[in-house]
Amino acid sequence: MGKAVAVDVVAGQEDWFVESADKVKGAITHVIDTHVHADHYSGGRKLAQLTGAHYCLHQNARINFPCLQLYDNDIIEAGNVRIEVLHTPGHTQDSICLLVTDGRRSSEPWFLLTGDTLLVGGVGRPDLDREAHEMAGELFDSLHNKLLILPDHLEFFPGHQAGSAVGPGLSGKPNSTLGFEKRNNPLLKVMDKEQFIRRITSHLPPRPAEMDQIVLINSAA
After folding, report:
1. Would the pTM count as exceeding 0.90?
2. 11, 78, 20: which is closest to 42 by C-alpha?
3. What span, in angstroms and rounded, lies between the C-alpha atoms of 123 and 88?
């Protein structure tokens, strides 16, 4: 039987993940949330309980239950697939991205899951966890020191698209490449850190509805 990893499961999607894994004769071994979500209820823990998988969050996650803690540069093996954890604080302190390599195809990275850190046409908002200016500076460092140093051709898949409260000006396209975003994402073309901080903190959308309640449930035992 093959192995599977589920990422950023929304509450109510658990059965779909189980059925999808069964169709390809895969066993879900890890369920990962890229951070403690503030805009939707997570189904990650429930899916992990249903499948016997590890439920995983970065060590900085402020939670009241045990989980498999992830650290920067950790490696998760799922059959031929290798997943490297990249700690990318800025949207939240516990935000991570996942660099995926399929050993059957190449030793080069296959694609990147960016959670709410890098989005198509934008980046994650920095005001949901700590003071916005401080977090915006961390987000700039994460983008430029962790993600944008990866190959331009690398395809990435973010956690949100147009219409989300996570960031303004997002595209409806579900994926992009790092090179395309470097050339066309307005926030990635701002190379000066102070300019980036001013720009991103001056155009923040309203906070997600019921945010405090959602975070409480997603972090509670």
Report:
1. yes
2. 11
3. 12
